Amino acid sequence: MSTSSRKPLMVFVWLWVAVPFAYGLYELARKATQLFTG
After folding, report:
1. CA angle in degrees (0–180, nearest 5) for 14-23-8
2. Please, what is the average pLDDT of the chain?
3. What is the per-residue DSSP string for 1-38?
4. Cβ neighbours, 10 Å, residue 19
């Protein structure tokens, strides 16, 4: 399998991991600011 044919799969896999991770970081920051600001 050539690298060019795997590119869409790699993009999909990175998004599959990065999107929930980014959402988790966003929620963490949101809850931490609520915790420290009251």
Report:
1. 20
2. 93
3. --HHHHHHHHHHHHHHHHHHHHHHHHHHHHHHHHHHH-
4. 10
Pick left, alpha or beta for residue 25 (phi over 0 → left; psi -120 to 50 → alpha; otherwise beta). alpha
Spatial separation of the C-alpha atoms in residues 2 and 6, rounded to whole Å: 7
Q: Whole-prediction pTM value?
A: 0.69
Residue with the two structure tokens 């599959």? 16
Residue type, 15: L
